[in-house]
Amino acid sequence: MGKYEVHGGTGRDFDFNVGPMEGVGDRERFGDRLWADVARVLEVSFAGFPGEAGDRGSHRYWFEDNAMSVSLYVDEGEPGWVFEKAPAMLTARSRSETAETWQLAEKLYAGLVATGAYFVAVFAEDGMPIDANFDIGDDW
Hints:
seven-stranded antiparallel beta sheet; alpha+beta; 7 strands; 3 helices
């Protein structure tokens, strides 16, 4: 049993925090690039589901079909936390009968890390860290 599967189960989410390995810069541009990479990794088209501006410079994205729902929220990180380095909050949930949410999460983590462009930390629904490609500390 893999590290994602043990945290899976009906209705259980995995929360991703993602940040660029090189300066955040413009949040909308970062969000658009991440959103495109998420679509590529999950092998779906997010055409027709562009991001939209939120409050205080944030940016939100949402996609939903019969197989999955995916949301992304890009904002400033919280200084001094993991979230400063990985300020985007990403959630993907399977709606398919053939794939579990933990499988979607595992695929998403592997695909985003493989790009070499992102810091990625994954947390179980209860806030426990599952995986990260950078040091998130031990204070959980």
